[in-house]
């Protein structure tokens, strides 16, 4: 493991990190609280300071401090490393985004923070009266526009003058904080300012709306800078992310005012896509926070096309897309101002599934009474909807419906679908993408009992050897003598359990096999417990087994019994395979290969009988 990452994990206090997000109470040597990753009333979320890990017995989330930050903040692994390093006060190495590059970005953030504070003061000042009146006409109260840090850009070059003491004009222009025209002037003038924040709530760009209706463009936005790319950010996501986790959904709207109005009316899981069309990067960003999205775009032609494009981008991310029914209103803001929160809630409840929205939009564009038009509509539905459905069951459902409504036979439609390059529907398809909570629980239930039991014994054994001095060996003494002692203790423990001799292929479940490999690596390196990357599927299982108590009278006898039973399962698999091979050979009559296979089968049967453990765990004589 990278030395810096190892140092980061060793210095991170998992209890302190988690306590910044979850109210914890001590129970024995662990801490418990309500899980931040799913809704629950009884705490099933456990933190183990001894092993520096967390695990939820409700949703099976688990891992170390980096994994926790990745999940709770919905950030990438490099971002979690940077955040944990910041929390611990450790300087980030240059290769991980630290050093001069980080200092430069922090300077840019400071400039944007100063600009945001300037615009906020101007909105509250006498010069901002026209902007405040506009916000009042749009139904926004002061607490709301303060929460979103809205501001006002006056005429002149006051901001450019203020910032020029800290950065040269060309640099301010590159950052979108000034214009080089006329020797330096403000980029935004006489405009209502909407600061755009990153996920941590730091301003990185601005949108400005003209207060004079004759001014063009109506909206002026920051261009791409070292901090900001329009197609990679979502407006108000820093405010919506926590509520999105709680409600397991995000509402995506088109404009700043739509998002702000939705928040003011209680829909705090709303974000705006900073333009008419969603981008691929924004779709991926949404998938980090939710697996359900409500699209509430404008109902004009541009908004409908944007909805169709968003559906194309969101479905491959494994996101369930629901299209809000706007009940004849142009956009969410106008609906909320006219009818209130209950009406917008009804628009979300009466949603159309994304696939249904596509079907209806294509169908409505064509005259089905004209054969050429109908044929064009059918081919568009096949190409733009059915061919792109990941589930065979969904394909079949829409093919049946299209056959009924068009009068074309299902076989004809399937042939046309094949001609378009899409595979025909087959039974048993399932939606690709994110795994649901039920999927996770099902996977947990299907883990093989014996493999999990043996892994539990392996993971727990070193912590139970107080008489061997292992507890004292896990302190902070890093002397060569300690390393040698630690290696010796682990070797004696794991060799007695038979771990170094356990072939990976004897474990049939891939998650258990991955965990066993990590245990073997930790054994060879003389470190315990094994560590995992946040993406490793074995990390939650390891966290669970390290936290779960192990109630067994004789851990060594229990381990030997597990090994014997695993060996019997292996013999049974070999016998099953040989039986199939013998059946095939018998069709050709007696032969030497058949004789050898029969001999192998008999040998394995005797071995199985000899090695089968009795009820008390002893082998038969």
Measure the end-to-end span.
47 Å
Strand content: 5-15%
Share of helix, binned: 40-55%
Largest sheet: 5 strands, antiparallel
CATH architecture tag of the largest domain = Alpha-Beta Complex
Query: What low-confidence regions span 5 or more consecutive residues with pLDDT below 50?
Result: 423-444, 463-494, 613-621
Query: Helix count, per DSSP?
Result: 27
Output the CATH class name of the largest domain: Alpha Beta
The Rg value, from CA coordinates, equals 31 Å
Which strand order do you get reading across the main beta sheet?
A: 1-2-3-4-5
| Domains (count) | 6
Envelope shape? globular
Report what the structure shows.
By secondary structure, the protein is α+β, with helices and mostly antiparallel strands. It has 6 domains: 94 residues, Zinc finger, CHC2-typedomain (DNA Primase, Chain A, Alpha-Beta Complex); 130 residues, DNA primase, catalytic core, N-terminal domain (DNA primase DNAg catalytic core, N-terminal domain), CATH 3.90.980.10; 122 residues, Dna Topoisomerase Vi A Subunit, Chain: A, domain 2, CATH 3.40.1360.10; 55 residues, no CATH class; 104 residues, no CATH class; 55 residues. 52% of the residues lie in helices and 9% in strands. β1 and β2 form a beta hairpin. It starts with a helix and ends in a 10-residue tail after the last helix. The C terminus is likely disordered.
